[in-house]
Every structure is written in structure tokens, then in C-alpha cells.
Amino acid sequence: MNSYEEKLSSLYEIFQAILKNTGVNADIGIKIYKKFMEAFSDGGMKEAASEVKEELEELENTELHIAITGETGSGKSTLINALRGLKAEDDGAAPVGVTETTLNPNVYTHSNYPKVKFWDLPGIGSPDFSPYSYLKKVDFPRYDFFIIVGSERFRCNHINLAQAIQKMEKKCYFVRSKVDSDLSNMERSYPNTFNAEEVLEKMRNEFKKQLRKCFRNTIPQVFLISSFDLDKYDFSQLVETLEKDLPSLQRLAFLLSLPIFSPEFAEKKKSALKSHLFKISLVYAGINAISTPGLPPPYDESLLKSIVDFYKMFELDDGSLARRARLVRKPVEELKAVMKSPQMIEINIDLVTKLITNYAKELFPPSVVGSLVATAVSFATTYWMLSNFLDNLAEDAERVRKKALGLEEYEAEHFRAK
After folding, report:
1. What is the spatial distance between Cα 122 and Cα 69, in angstroms, rounded to a whole number?
2. What are the tens digits of pLDDT across the range 306-323?
3. Is 384 among the domain residues?
4. What is this structure's pTM?
């Protein structure tokens, strides 16, 4: 570990304490200040900030190419739309139909994360299907991993393709789609004995048994999902598996691009972002070091962009709120009304400067002058403001989710009934 990495590691220790702290107090501020002074007493502040800035830019420019393939009608396009937080009727959605709509690889980007690309590949259902010629046709090296979608069962073409992908040393995952429809059909057929968990477990076991016969070494995992209800079945396990398998930067890009489908996932997003706040704060403290302790530096548009990005990551920007409102057929004003944070349109440099100033006054007592001391104050107040801002946005995201689903009214009625 080089000296720069040691300094970051040392700083990060105190941030763990911040995350567990329930309120702002001067003791925490002094601890951050002392840790900062200890880390950079030998100079090198601007050099460290410059290196961190390069890391953040690398993350912003990280591309992720996800290939989704399967037989015609298996739900490939519907899954791509779900991963992008869209329905088939939305602008820019992948076309959905009972006939093959994909003859060549089609790329779909996320509206808020253009570097994350979802590729809808041609169907693999033809009798003369050849996995190697197929992979050559769709430009195999382009993709970071493959999701093979099946709606009823996995056939020889699915298995042959997965084996070819593995031999070419890339990851692939089986997704069994339309699980909600299958459960509904089973319940209608066996209304007296139907048990959803038993049916799901039986499906998983059958798929595992089938794949064990076909794969000698690494057996691809199978995930049961419904593209219309990502919070059910195995979608969260799919996300966790991809997190584990992807390199760190691609892992974060994938995580941040996904729609918030549960309160637990909102917390996961918040945790992932908080692990980067100290880097963002270090950049602004180093490059925009203040000259007067306790007051914010003249923050530029970059900090403003970071905060606006937080809104997009929690689907609280105007575009995301409008899409959600259309999906649930409610006025967008109803969703915005439950938010306690400022609306994204209200975020500007003056507001950010005011927030930083207020946190600086709360967090630090009057201090002596000096460029390093001033930088430490800037660093700590920036971090604290961003951390609290994230907490508030995560809470707003859950309030909006509940309002969209009508859960607020249900919970209120349930509470009154008690």
C-alpha cells in the first residue's frame, strides 16, 4: 500500500464512525479534523486529491455491456425494460411482442446511466442453431456477461450457448422469467393444495438437476424472476451474484443503474454511495481549499453535478418521478409532495453553499487560520453535508415508493385498525 492509499485508509476509519453517529456534534468534527491533519501533515494534499479525482472520473467513464438472449417470446425485451425502470409503452423502451422483434443486436442505454448498456440479442430458437456462429454474429467480445432467458424450460440451445460462453471464459446466468404467470396458472389448477414456496422450490430443484447433467465444472446459476415484480422471487439474489462477480467499478455502475425495487435495495445503494463520499469530499477540499475557517469554498459546478446525480440514483429526478407517476397512474405532484428534500430543480450552487456553511458552523468551533486547517474544515463539512443529504434522499425514495404503490394509505389504515 503506497502512502496515498494509507492516508485514504486512515481517513476512512473515521468515516465508519460518522456513519454510525446519529447526530452532528463538535466531537466528531474535531476527530475528523485531527485525522485529516495527521494524514496530510507532511503535505501532498493536492496530489492525493488529484489521484482521487482521476479515480472518480474513471468510475464515471466505466462502461458495462450486458447481453440478454434467449428464445423468441421468453421475455428478453421485457427484462431489459425492467432493468431500466421502463414499461413497453415508455419512450425508448425495447419493443415487446409475441413474435421475434430482434433480428440483430439492439443496444438500449439507461436514461440516467448512458455508460450502462443492455443488449437485446436475436433469439436462439431456430432448429439449426449453432452457438459459436451465433456468438460470432453478435460480436461476443463486446459483452461483459450474458443473461440467458427462458420462460418455460431450458432447452438444448440454451445449454449449448451457455457451454460455449463458458469455454470462451465469460460469465453467464440463467433467468427463468414469467414466474408470476406460472404461479398464477398453478393456483388456478390446484386451488386447494397450491403453495407458492413449494412450487418455486420444486422449479429450482428441477433446473439444478437439469444443469448438473450438462455441466461438468462450473454450473451456471438459475434465478426465478418476474420482470413486472422485481421485488419478488430471486431478483435480489441475481443482483447480489452479479455484484460478487463483477469488477469493482462495473459492480458499482450496475448497482447504481438499477431501479429501486425494495427498501433493502435503496439502503444498498445508499451504502455504496457513502463509501465514495470521502473521495468526493477530498477532491473538493484539495482543489477548492478555503481561506477562511468555518466557511465554504467557492464550489464549482462539479459538486452540484454530484448532488444532482444522487437524485437520479434514487429516482427522484423529474424524469424518473414522471415515469413512476405514469406507471401507477397518479399525478406526479402526489409523489413529489411526500418528499422532504428540496426538489431537484431547486438545487443550485447558492443552496449547496448555504448547506455547507450551516454544517461548518454546527460541526466546528472557531479555529485558527492556515491553509491545511481550512482544507480540513472544508473536507469535513462537505462530507457531513453529503452524507446527510444522501440519508434524506434515501428516506424520500422510500416515501415515494410507498406513495406510488398505495402503501402509505394501507399502513395508516392498518395502524388505525390496531
Report:
1. 7
2. 888 899 889 999 888 988
3. yes
4. 0.77
